[in-house]
Each structure stands twice: as C-alpha cells, then as structure tokens.
Specification:
The chain is 56% helix and 6% strand. By secondary structure, it is mainly alpha-helical. The chain has a domain at 2-75: Orthogonal Bundle (Arc Repressor Mutant, subunit A). It has a two-stranded antiparallel ribbon. The protein starts with a helix and ends in a 7-residue tail after the last helix.
Length: 108
C-alpha cells in the first residue's frame, strides 16, 4: 500500500522508489501484484509519467486512511512497569560474562 501511495503521489516509478528507499523494479513488481489483486492496471504509462486509472483514484483515499491508521498504531508507546511485571526474564551468558557480572550485580 505504501508503494501504491508513493506511486499515486509521484506519478513516476523511479521517484516513488527513491521516496521509499526501494529499487524501481521492486516498485514495478509491487504495482503488478496490486494490479492483479484489484483486477486493474492501476497506472497507465504516458510519455511523461504514469497516470492513475479511475480505480486507482477511487482507492487512494481509503488506502491513505489505512496507512494513516497504521502509522498512528506504530506511534503508540507501550509502557512497562517493572514493579507490576509478571513476565519471566531469562538472562543467558557465557561463563566469562557471568564472572564479570558477578563483580557488578544487577541489584544491590
């Protein structure tokens, strides 16, 4: 969906690839898969750029809404309260690491 959004905004595969830090072939492959999924080419090549089809124009709003929601979810910070944590933590180390850590205990 990020490929679709970048392509719709840039109207050019190379610029979309640069924006996303991907290669141009990756953009083409991604758009091909989306085109198969939606049974529509989504973008049509012209002399200067790639124009979105009417189906692509209809999809861009909902796709941007989904991407915005996903960004919001990713920005939520999980809080960790050590005093109330019920999880088990395992610390694995080599014998040499254990010898060093015994000189500097984690708790006093």
């Amino acid at each position: 969906m990020r490929i679709f959004d970048a392509m719709h905004a840039n109207r050019h595969g190379t610029r979309a690839a640069e924006e996303l830090g991907l290669s141009q072939p990756t953009i083409s492959i991604g758009l091909g898969k989306l085109g198969q999924q939606f049974v529509d080419p989504l973008f049509v090549r012209t002399a200067e750029d790639m124009l979105p089809t009417s189906r692509a124009d209809a999809l861009i709003g909902p796709i941007r809404d989904v991407l915005h929601s996903l960004r919001n979810i990713c920005e939520l910070e999980a809080t960790f309260e050590p005093a109330s944590a019920m999880r088990k933590f395992r610390i694995c180390m080599t014998d040499a690491s254990q010898a060093m850590s015994s000189r500097c205990p984690l708790t006093s």
